[in-house]
Specification:
S-adenosylmethionine-dependent methyltransferase activity; 9 helices; transferase; Rossmann fold; seven-stranded mixed beta sheet; alpha/beta; SAM-dependent_MTases_sf; single chain; Methyltransf_11; binds S-adenosylmethionine; globular; plasmid
Length: 274
């Protein structure tokens, strides 16, 4: 398989039409209970309401940063960082329209080299960033550097090696799962590496919180996901638009017939610096 261009890793190079598809997807996904609940659960575990300075890396449209800023008990400020200027502008617009601009701000930057002061945050989160990174260990080192000694970090992402959509033919399902995963994610096994990476970066794990996103019979959450995959996956250069569209047709046909099976596991790691 050729080296893939995970579209979420190269958001600074994508055209605006593709980024608009991504914005729509991130907003639908972020507001869905399958995603909002695990976020709320790990923020509770981090005791986020008593943190005064929070950093959200790979913030995208600011789903997590805005959720923190909107919490009734939260009185601090949130800084969201993303490598795409276009997504940062979208995040600012959403925050303005939700009247959250006093608590949250967004800047363009690379999580591998933040240019932020050491020990300047009480909490750092990365919400579905790590599976897209060039160098996850470097980003963990940055998270560790900018955290205050009593600070807390959280990494939430899909265990994308577990992402699967069953088609009528099992062997074709396996091949298409592999191609879709390689088209959308740089590090599909990153959450399985996280215990080692966190330890090496000087973190101790406080909690690991799994969430299983499985739909059987009819697709609802996964329907909007695969529809956006149809537009994003071909950017990676593994599948053509025609192959991706045919795959989406098969997946949605299974849903229409009530025989859909789609699933992925997600995990939140909550950790503190040692
Ligand atoms: C899957 S999206 C997640 C966005 C948001 N956290 C959410 O869950 O809705 C991944 C985001 O990480 C950003 N990103 C990827 N690599 C990055 C890097 N090295 N530094 C900062 N942002 C990065 C992308 O631009 C994209 O917005």
């Amino acid at each position: 398989m050729p080296a893939a261009l995970d579209p979420f890793r190269i958001t600074d190079k994508l055209d605006e039409n593709t980024l608009d598809v991504m914005i729509g997807r991130l907003e639908v996904r972020g507001h869905h209970p399958y995603f909002a609940k695990p976020l709320s659960d790990y923020l509770d575990r981090m005791e986020i309401d008593r943190r005064s300075a929070v950093l959200d890396l790979g913030c995208g449209t600011g789903i997590a940063a805005r959720a923190i800023a909107a919490r009734p008990g939260f009185e601090g400020t949130v800084l969201g960082i993303d490598r795409s200027d276009y997504l940062v502008h979208a995040a600012r617009r959403f925050a303005d329209s939700e009247k959250l601009s006093g608590r949250v701000r967004f800047e363009c930057g690379d999580s591998h080299a933040l240019g932020l002061g050491a020990a300047s945050f009480d909490a750092v989160i990365a919400h579905t960033l790590f599976s897209h990174l060039d160098d996850p260990a470097k980003v963990l080192a940055e998270m560790r550097r900018v955290l205050r000694p009593d600070g807390v970090a959280a990494i939430f992402d899909g265990d994308f090696a577990s992402l699967t959509f069953e088609l009528a033919d099992a062997e074709r399902s396996r091949r298409m799962d592999d191609a879709i995963i390689a088209s959308l994610v740089t590090n599909p096994r990153i959450l399985r590496q996280m215990p080692r990476l966190l330890k090496d970066a000087g973190f101790a794990v406080d909690a690991v919180m799994p969430a299983i996103v499985t739909e059987v019979g009819t697709a609802e959450y996964w329907k909007s996901a695969v529809e956006s995959f149809a537009k994003l996956a071909p950017k990676a250069g593994i599948l053509s638009e025609a192959e991706t569209t045919a795959w989406v047709g098969e997946v949605l046909d299974a849903s229409a017939q009530g025989v859909f099976f789609g699933s992925s596991v997600y995990y939140a790691y909550v950790a503190h610096a040692v």
